[in-house]
TrEMBL record:
This is Glycerol kinase. PANTHER family: GLYCEROL KINASE, SUGAR KINASE. The gene is glpK. NCBIfam families: glycerol_kin, PRK00047.1. GO terms for biological process: glycerol catabolic process; glycerol-3-phosphate metabolic process. One of its GO terms (cellular component) is cytosol. Pathway: Polyol metabolism; glycerol degradation via glycerol kinase pathway; sn-glycerol 3-phosphate from glycerol: step 1/1. Keywords: ATP-binding, Glycerol metabolism, Kinase, Nucleotide-binding, Transferase. ADP binds at residues 13, 17, 277, 321, 421, 425.
């Protein structure tokens, strides 16, 4: 296997990356390209699916060319993706009917509030493991069918989107399904992405007829749901297509489940936190779907071919890395790397707290109308204090989730595996260890999201034989242990709760 590799398409919120891995889990090819963020109205966030597909072909070919790897050397392709982001497209032409609605998009907040008022939230949560929120794909699909401009093309059913969807002329899916369709021509998703749509019963492991009726989503437009690592394969790339080779597409996971898999959290109680645009803390709960009583989500962690699904508890934090991007956008920093230097230059935030609720608050608060807040400023407040408060907000939000996780699972986390772009920041990792009171383990290969989908695809085609091989690949780059006084940390955390309270239910306008 010295001359074969497994490729991973990592399609994220801000850009698309392709990485090829060798048998030891090391990176041998890598390319990345950003895509446009589209904000038509306050609280609305869209992506162009065509741009995402074009960028995908670009990064795959560029990475392979730069590394001198022929596409025929790819044993398999895996996909990992920004979850919940939703596309509706024409089955025959492959043209989207509208831009993709991104997971951050809040335009359906009124709809989910109406569901809650109607007393439907508990039934939905029992079936899906999810809080009723605009975050998920159900209300996004509903909005697209009701509001997207119809495709201007001939159809036996005319241009009405709902009629065309019922006739099987339109397809919907999360970004993994969109990429699989373009790669193979097949309409396929995996169980982890299906579990994030708010249309999928995670206990029965199938699309739920009652939920489809509630959101008026025709079953004819839904993708086939497969294991995350699928020995039957999702399909093959077209040998006459952009790769010029017939490569098996054999696995997919939503990005956070992919990171769980890439961090080799295969056993009950294993936990990881990924720091990206948002942060996502997942704990493997084995074959039991643990119902949360503390604002967490119950979701599917992964499924291997022939095995039952493995479940996870998840704390979804909407804005962490995006708060660093905001600092850069308002010219408080020149680049993300500068945050550590500025934060370290002051001993504390001097009483300043920043709550980065720019698109509402996720777990454990679930307030779609919360908004970003800075409190505690005085005339002596400087940008260094605000930068440090921003980094502390990432660590505090993670503690909110960690405490809920322990309360739900009954398992005390003694070590947390971390990954994502922000964990390159040693100051943040140490801050996180201090505020959690838990050791933080950063792996050598921190592209664990891409690695997880590569592992899933590679297992499906026999590139790796067992998960034990994958465990042997995992290595710690650095471990951070708590250093600050526990009472001092607890005082700061108590005031964080006060700051969060002031951010809640702020946006009264239409989202």
């Amino acid at each position: 296997m010295t001359d074969t590799y497994v490729g991973s398409i990592d399609q994220g919120t801000t850009g698309t990356r392709f990485i090829a891995f060798d048998h030891s889990g090391q990176i041998v090819a890598n390319a990345y390209k950003k895509h446009e963020q589209i904000y038509p109205n306050p609280g609305w966030v869209e992506h162009d699916p065509i741009e995402i597909w074009d960028n995908t072909t670009h990064v795959v070919t560029r990475a392979l060319d730069n590394a001198g790897i022929d596409p025929s050397q790819l044993a398999a392709l895996g996909i990992t993706n920004q979850r919940e982001t939703t596309v509706v497209w024409d089955r025959d032409s492959g043209r989207p009917v509208h831009n993709a609605l991104v997971w951050q998009d809040r335009r359906t907040t009124d709809r989910v509030e109406a569901l809650t008022r109607a007393g439907k939230a508990e039934e939905i949560r029992e079936k899906t493991g999810l809080e009723v929120d605009a975050y998920f794909s159900a209300t996004k699909t509903e909005w697209l069918l009701d509001n997207a401009e119809p495709l201007k093309m001939r159809s036996a059913r005319g241009n009405d989107l709902r009629e065309r969807a019922e006739a099987g002329e339109l397809l919907m899916g999360t970004i993994d399904a969109w990429l699989v369709y373009n790669l193979t021509g097949n309409h396929v998703t995996d169980v982890t992405n299906a579990s994030r749509t708010m249309l999928y019963n995670i206990h029965d492991v199938e699309w739920d007829d009652d939920l489809l009726a509630e959101f008026d989503v025709p079953a004819e437009m839904l993708p086939d749901v497969r294991p995350s690592s699928d020995e039957s394969l999702y399909g093959h790339t077209d040998p006459d297509g952009f790769l010029g080779a017939e490569v098996p597409v054999a696995g997919a996971l939503g990005d956070q489940q992919a990171a769980l898999f890439g961090q080799t959290c295969f056993d009950e109680g294993d936990a990881k936190n990924t720091y990206g645009t948002g942060s996502f803390y997942l704990m493997n709960t084995g074959t039991d779907a643990v119902e949360s009583e503390h604002g967490l989500l119950t979701t599917i962690g992964f499924q291997l071919s022939g095995d039952p699904v493995q479940y996870a508890l998840e704390g979804s934090i909407f804005i962490t890395g995006a708060a660093i991007e905001w600092l850069e956008g308002v010219d408080l920093i020149n680049n993300a790397a500068q945050t550590a230097e500025l934060a370290r230059s002051v001993d504390s935030t001097d009483g300043v707290y920043l709550v980065p609720a720019f698109t509402g608050l996720g777990a454990p608060h679930w307030d779609g109308r919360a908004r970003g807040t800075i409190v505690g400023m005085t005339r002596g407040t400087e940008k260094e204090h605000i930068v440090r408060a921003t980094l502390e907000s990432i660590a505090y939000q993670t503690r909110d989730v960690a405490e809920a996780m322990e309360a739900d699972s009954g398992i005390e986390t003694t070590s947390l595996r971390v990954d994502g772009g922000a964990v390159k920041n040693n100051f943040l990792c140490q801050l996180q260890a201090d505020i959690l009171g838990t050791s933080i383990a950063r792996p050598v290969v921190d592209e664990t999201t891409a690695l997880g989908s590569a592992y899933a695809a590679g297992l499906a085609v026999g590139y790796w034989d067992t998960v034990d091989e994958l465990r042997d690949n995992w290595q710690v780059d650095r471990e951070f242990t708590p250093e600050r006084d526990e009472e001092e940390v607890d005082r700061g955390y108590s005031r964080w709760a006060d700051a969060v309270e002031r951010s809640l239910d702020w946006a009264q306008e239409e989202p």
